[in-house]
Amino acid sequence: MLLGIDVGTSGVKAVLIDLHGRVFASASESYPLHTPQPLWAEQNPEDWWHATCKVIRQILEQGDIAPTAVRGIGLSGQMHGSVFLDEHRRVIRPALLWCDQRTAEECAWITEQVGEQTILQMTLNPVLTGFQAGKIIWLRRHEPENYARVRHVLLPKDYIRFMLTGEFATEVSDASGTALFDVPQRQWAYAILDALALPHAWFPRVHESPEITGRVNAFASQETGLAEGTPVVGGAGDQAAGAVGSGVVEEGIASVAVGTSGVIFAHLTQPRVDPQYRTHTFCHAVPGAWHVMGVMLMAGGALRWYRDTFLPNESFEFVVSEAEAVPPGADGLLFLPYLSGERTPYADPNARGAFFGATLAHRRGHFTRAVLEGVGYGLRDSLEILRAMEVTPNQLRLTGGGARSPLWRQILADIFGQRVHTLQSEEGPAFGAAILAGVGTGVWQTVPEACAHTVRLTETTYLEPLHQEAYAVGYQRYRQLYPTLKPLFG
Prior knowledge:
This protein is α+β, with helices and mostly antiparallel strands. Helix content is 37%, strand content 20%.
């Protein structure tokens, strides 16, 4: 058996799979997200650990297996967050998350201090507010007493690794999103660390994703029920792990993840960048490979906001059902899904959401459909950038909560102008992390071989030709909204 653990934004999920990719047991546990001020987003790393211990125990009990049956553990998690530890290896303050937007000034300062061309040449990405680098400088500027105590800086999943093994380690896919990592060379960007006066010793050693990074220690064994000595591999950031779990480990295949955020992810055999740097080029969880992805900050998160605000007592299924009777294009109603700023195609923390085009003829179902279509248009922005980069996937694999909705699948296929496929496993990054654990412990020799044994397609959604004109018009109108409204954003 192989165990995958995903430290997400809303909760931790664990999945236990057999050597054929069949899910033997799964469990999840939620924890709070704190927003002390507008645009801030924090979590307590201790909450991640307590939830992780709980789900591991649940899985072992649910599966009724001996701890020694777990051959290896893979880790995944939300990217970019910052966990600060002191000399006693204790958490100093709550972690600043990927969706935290407080660091715009710090990111501009980093770019000026290091030099934009150096940043782009080494990291292949601009310094964005979500990335870890700005969070470290923010701590130095705004909480100097806490900054003075820092001895280790970890990413979210790597804090769980530390708690499981006592080891400070990370891997290339997650480290790529710090703005402190040399993506082509797959190592820390020491020239950037030096320019920012950040001690090298703060940052953990870097591995390839399937490599064993440590073993479950006595403390973690007691807390989780796992067998002491169980190997823990590098794992991957949530998007790279999800791509492994979707079989996006060769060129020509891309995944479309509709979770809290929305991501289009494609495999690369060599690093390639968008000339305008609207997408991210990071190291892949496949050793010696890279990936490009476009990220919109709110996808399923936009639908959750809409449900919680306007239909708080209803299920997602009921909310989406109200959109079924509304024609494609929502009778001209548009939704701009920038509820937490945006990343692709506009790296703008001040971008805001909006409904546009409302009339007396529009009903609640129109607004629901506009949300679903607005997310689809936002994802198409990323797909169009990939196509312009000559990264043209001939197969799109749909994952995340949005994949469960037949209506949303149809909307996405029609907006993309390309059929979409769903997968047998809906376990997401945790499933991919478990696959990586299998590679690291010798079950399979390579990540593509592992995916060939474990990843299976299920349903295909074909595009509806009668919808193409409405979405062609809708997408062009959608594309005009951001540049028109940008002067009005704060």
